[in-house]
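Worked problem 6 (solution included).
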Amino acid sequence: RVVNPNCRHKSHEIASYLEKVINSLAQENGEDYGIARLVLRYVREWIEKDIDQTLVSAQRDRIYYTQHSGYKPDTLSYSIRIPKVSSKPNQYYSVEEEIEGHNLTEWKVLQEQGHNMKEIVSLIARHYIEEIKTGLIHSDYSIGNFRITKSKEVAIIDRNYLIELQQKEVKLLF
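Solution. The predicted structure is:
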């Protein structure tokens, strides 16, 4: 992913220069250089898409946080907690707030603390369906990415990437 704010300007500058080189070569050699033009166009589109994707991923994360933090079906005593990102997201890392608790990998510890494991699993399953309905899904649903707090919150951690469904995909599922 590309985050550098000057990248868009520099990529346009470099692409324009390469177009001039290709045009010059075509004029000198009397050839079309169609493949070189095609490759340049594809690379340029790829870089543009990558730049746009990076800018959008921080927006998606905010939307995901707003849609899902505090999710709690009426019949359950546990709720979903989405940690806040405490650093500006970038291509190398993001830092989520520290959440005190135990991951689902520590099942026995959670049981010993009196947590209702059936309710926790029910919440995670219901929330996953809710994520699909909203079209933004955590990309790594694994037991190591769910942390249970003393205050009956199920925190979903390590959300580096979100899967975005198109509306037609959501409609197909629901």
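Discussion: The beta strands are 79-81, 102-103, 136-138, 146-148, 153-156, 162-164.
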